[in-house]
Amino acid sequence: MRNYTIPNSDLTHRVNYSRREIERMASDELRQAKCLPEEPQPIAWEKYLRRAHNNLQPRIEDLPEGELGHAILADPFNPQIVIARAVFEGSMARYRSTLAHEIGHLVLHRHLFLERELPAYLEKRRRGGLQRGFACGAAEINENPRAPLHKDDPLFHLEFQANVFMSCATVPEKLLRVLLAPHIRAQTQRGGGKIEGIDDAVRPACVDLIASTFEVSRTLAGYRLEAIFPKNTFPKSPVPASTGVLEAGWLF
Hints:
By secondary structure, the chain is of the alpha+beta class. Helices cover 40% and strands 13% of the residues.
């Protein structure tokens, strides 16, 4: 984590986590709570909250239209997470990503509430008509963290970090590699060393497999596949039918 300052901003103190730091923190959080499975499966977020955060349970409430959830961290030693009833009663994939996003705020940003600047800024926003805490709608809970948020918003970097945490924690790299092991190909580079990748021809089926296994959206599944195994790693080549690569019958 790196701290830096943005002069003449409503929020001058900023924190920066690299993607690799967030990846490591997400895995560590799950591992320490004994919630990182050995085999690919959906992450048990409610169990994680009970074990890692003093029996914390997400509250399900009727929130304003467009609001999916928020983390209330004004008292960093007594955090609260609220999920919109419409999200809870809707798609399981959306519920899981929303809950993981708010947990990302809890893990990455709770310490900022021990200082004065961020709570004061959020109180200013509340008086302007916004909910106290991180009030997150579809624009903030972005299952493809490469896409832009409101870059002129001082909270942009915090929402982006929570989205990266969401993606890393709902589809941990370790489990993704186990799931796709039969389809990971290594190629020797000139000068030595190897690169790993997945042939572009089977990527759509892999996205479907990730989405169904971890109970996430295809958008999030595609982002994670691209983050770990970028497209066009290898020259395009036909895939022999006998390789055991995902066939159409694997699609969910």
